[in-house]
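Write out a record, fold above all:
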Amino acid sequence: MYMAYGYPQVIPLEQGRVLRRKRSFTSNSLADSCSSFRLRISSSGAPLRLRLGNYKRDADSVKREGENLQAVWSPDSRLIAVLTSSFFLHIFKVQFTERKVQKGGKQPSGAILCDNKHMLLGLSDGSLYSISWKGEFYGAFELDSFERNSSEVTTLPHSLVNGIASGGSQGLNYKVSKKSATAQLEFCVSMGLLLVLNSDGELVSCSVSKKFLKPVESIKAEKSLGSGNAVCTSIAGDQQILAVGTRRGVVELYDLAESVSLIRTVSLYDWGYSMDDTGSVSCIAWTPDNSAFAVGWKLRGLTVWSVSGCRLMSTIRQIGLSSVSSPVVMPNQDCKYEPLMGGTSLMQWDEYGYRLYAIEEGSLERILAFSFGKCCLSRGVSGMTHVHQVIYGEDRLLVVQSEDTDELKMLHLNLPVSYIPQNWPVQHVAASKNGMYLAVAGLHGLILYDIRLKKWRVFGDVS
């Protein structure tokens, strides 16, 4: 289970104008933020995050080739592909220079996906375009048409209430639209499943060959998923669960292992917020272990849910539990301390699931980083007079203690500076049977904490 703690960290970028669109992606130890005219690369795999590179396009380039819209890393973290608003594709090689490797041709595009050797672009007419990382263009192709009947997919009941789905199915004839632009491409390597999301809300699952993107002729459309109003998707490969965000502000969870059946829906309706308050779902991001997922809304805030539908964290204030009327925020209300008040445009978890990075819709150039802790496998540590619950973050332990007044107190135990810098982040935490000692392991070795004496014990060479 995940638990958020502390205030979100604000990571400022260089000051500039308010951006119409902004995209950010991570790749293990690297992260990039893509603004309308700038590409910035930063480290993301250590407690201290440093800017590693910055590429700023001149005014003539922006005027001639358009603003940056979207970026994607190659799997080996050596190349970055950037799409522009004038339908140009820029490919950059990541090294300590600003040398551009190659610049592709002019092709209208709305989505991008890649493997080790090739990229797949979704075009404005619904077709797909294959390009190699060397800048070789293989041309566009269209998905084969197919028909959908009532036995192929279970559709969503129209209720907004959280819970397990109980609705039936609809019988509709459907063909892949050739006019709707491709809005998003999603691929699950372990399942060999490619999802194509069109701008009209149709979500299509496709089968691919073992070589994934090549040959492109092997990509075949199979069935339509969801209720026809999807705006974003995300696959949890380990859990074999598909999350689909909709225009109604609801997230639908599908079991991909059981003929794509609907498991449940999650929304903020039970907490007094309707689509008029949050808007449609704008983005979904699974944790690295696929045990939880974050949902961002177009108009306001983000929320983190467990797979079972439990709300773990939310930036939106819980004003009331009544769903009779939504707590609409008035312009004169003091909500300046609520993060992401203007909506969420993009989210991304770090490699270990300790931080959730988010970008606010239409904000200045900054990134918000929310810190999360994970529950200790021991579930509880029984002391002499108190009962403790241990949660561990990337560089600390959070010990929840129950006081005599039945109030909970959280104690932050920062790991010794002689251990954590060389062994960041925390990987495992275990407690002794009597609850007097905690064993903490980072990337190498382990250290002990004596709860009674409140002292750390470090053994030998910590590096």
